[in-house]
Amino acid sequence: MTTDFTSIPILDLFLAHSDKPKFLAELQHALIHVGFFYVKNHSVTPVFLEQLTQLTTGFFDLPLEEKLKTDKIHSPTFLGYSIQGNEITKNKKDNREQYDFANELPSSWEEGHPIYERLTGPNLWPDNTHLPDFRETILSFHEQAKSLAELLTQYVAEALGLEPNALIERFVVPGQQHRAKLIKYPAVDSLAPEDGTQGVGPHRDTASLLTILYQANDLPGLQVQNHSGEWIDAPAIADTFVVNIGTGLEYLVHGIAVATTHRVLNPHAGKGPRYSIPFFYGARLDKKIAPVEISDELLTKKPVTVVTDSGHQFFKMYAENPGLYALLNRMSSHRDVSAKFYPELSREHGII
Ligand SMILES: O=C(O)CCC(=O)C(=O)O
Ligand SMILES: [Fe+2]
Known about the structure:
This protein is α+β, with helices and mostly antiparallel strands. It has helices at residues 15-18, 20-33, 46-60, 64-68, 134-159, 166-171, 247-252, 296-299, 322-333, 335-341, 343-348, and strands at 10-12, 36-40, 80-82, 88-89, 92-93, 97-102, 179-185, 198-203, 208-215, 222-225, 231-233, 241-245, 262-265, 274-282. The chain has a single domain, classed as Jelly Rolls (Sandwich). A hairpin with a 2-residue loop joins strand 4 (88-89) and strand 5 (92-93). This is Fe2OG dioxygenase domain-containing protein. Pfam families: 2OG-FeII_Oxy (PF03171), DIOX_N (PF14226).
């Protein structure tokens, strides 16, 4: 009998070297019973993270017309800027501004190809004169977060009794696109009273294996829903990343790692904005994939019920068509892009 979690475990990557069995046992517990954990002693330096934070605030401080030049509405990839209130989670507007980016890839979709291929394409960069180091720093963060995600996915495999590369080999295509975001959550005193406090509504991270999140300043706001439905704070802890499971991994390991629901509340009045930077380590979208074998002994440890306030958008579709599932989730978050580039699909799936 395990009691429900009331805090998020902190995993120390040094332990993975000094006492690997202990590390894997702690990781296994976090995967099955929490779905979230912090990692400390990773290889991303504080100096780099400080530079990334400066550029993040620098981007959001640009004049609105500059940010709007990179608006998502210019591209079917859902990469680029979203003005505050553009994104919708659980049918409600999120009070956050964001800039979505990915490893740089050209568009390859053409008429007749599977529609989800339109998600892949180049970034929409802000003008170089405003933030000269922006592109290089953002892409460097992307590389470093991806390396950490790969390492953690190997440990996740081992913690679930698999070969280290068992998940990556089957579920990740070398060179595929992985998405990430810079996010700004304004404090409530810079919102209208009717906006409420939903920075981002209750959700599970869709289609990915792992999320690696950097909380760029130390304001609270991120909350994680435990299995009985209570909201548990995940405060910023210096020099750590917060890691959580996406619905891709949950499906691919028979639910033994839980894609835990989470949300963000806007900062209290007078606190100023909260900034965060998630990287989503994606799973392949190009074909239907069967889950891996997990031992019966481990499967008996699976939580019996997990209460969630998340909408489970289109989750049943994942097993059949992960690409379409990923696309529909993007579309339902950004209705303007959806209406412009995917009008028929929007009608078909009631995304209006
Ligand atoms: O900003 C955060 O702390 C969490 C962001 C998040 O959950 C998301 O963008 O999926
Ligand atoms: Fe999330």
